Amino acid sequence: MRRLRLFTLGLMLAALTPPALAEGCLAPGDWWQHGSVTEASRVMARAAAQDVVLIGERHDQMADHRFELHTLAGLAARRDDMVIGLEMLPRRAQPALDAWVNGELSEDELLRQSRWDETWGFEAAMYLPIFHFTRMNRIPLVALNIAPELRRRLADEGFDAVPPAERHGIAPPAAPRPAYRRRLRAVYDAHPLERPFTTFLRAQLAWDTAMADALARASAGGKLAVGIMGRGHMQHRDGVAHQLDKRGVHHQMTLLPVPADSCRPQTPGLADALYMLEASPAPKAGFMERLDTG
User: Are 95 and 140 in contact (CB under 8 A)?
Assistant: First the structure.
């Protein structure tokens, strides 16, 4: 009888064990690269040797932001010439970012002067640890995005119709790869908009190429530019990664945190390296009115 009880208890414990913790499976804290678990030091060393590193996030998941902070610390320990770019803010917020890093603004002043609540749609509290990290270490911040009104204009009229001086000198985007176009089409079909798909596509490409342009400039002179953005802008080396490549920035690496809710990553090629997180709730629906697939 005792053996039977122990056997039954063993079955119950096995049933309660998360799949990621089963023998031979990935667990939270593992890095997955080239089809195998890789030491964090090797991933960080390789990333620190790039010109640009793209870190993808689910905007409303605190675990993703903690991962970003830890990864930024690992990179900063290896590079003294690092710059951090943020998708969350448009170029007009650059003076506020400079003043923040220089210690001239309070949190409230930073959010007010950058127009955070107006520009972004997610809680500033999730990003403030990263802001404080940059100030403590005097790491420059770069606003990667463009104002919503400019993005709408580029989407409606096209790049050629907007003078370079009115689009921050950003060169027109390269054509998207077919797989990226198909993924964007699937997003569009799932969230029908009044605007046609071609307008949606142009808006997304404007978003991608604006961030690629800012990161390319930030990496000039041999600096390491790290871009923090929604995962939809960098998965499968599409989006910003593709636009960077077409601008001649080939030494780049993509890092992505993913929930360790299966034994192995189910989608190959998501990023150059994946970091396993504890399973968390599914992200909320994106703000399609902002044309964000992150």
Answer: no
All residues at 6 or more sequence positions from 137 whose CB lies less than 8 Å from its CB, including other chains: 76
Which residue type does 10 have?
Answer: G
> d(Cα 246, Cα 196) in Å, to the nearest integer?
26
Cα dist from 65 to 18, 35, 77, 142, whole Å: 23, 25, 19, 18
At residue 5, φ and ψ (nearest 5 deg) are -65, -40
Whole-angstrom distance, CA of residue 212 vs CA of residue 244? 5
How are beta strands 82-90 and 224-230 bridged, if at all? Answer: parallel
Reference 57, options 133, 153, 145, 127; nearest CA is: 127
If you search the block for the tokens 């409230």, which residue do you land on?
Answer: 108
The model carries a pTM of 0.88
Q: How confident is the model at residue 23 (pLDDT cuts 50, 70, 90)?
A: low
Helix ranges (H only) for 139-228 are 148-157, 178-190, 197-218
Give helix 197-218 / helix 148-157 axis angle, nearest 10°: 120
Q: Which residue type sits at 194?
A: E
Q: Is the pLDDT of residue 1 over 80?
A: no
Biggest CA pair distance of the chain: 83
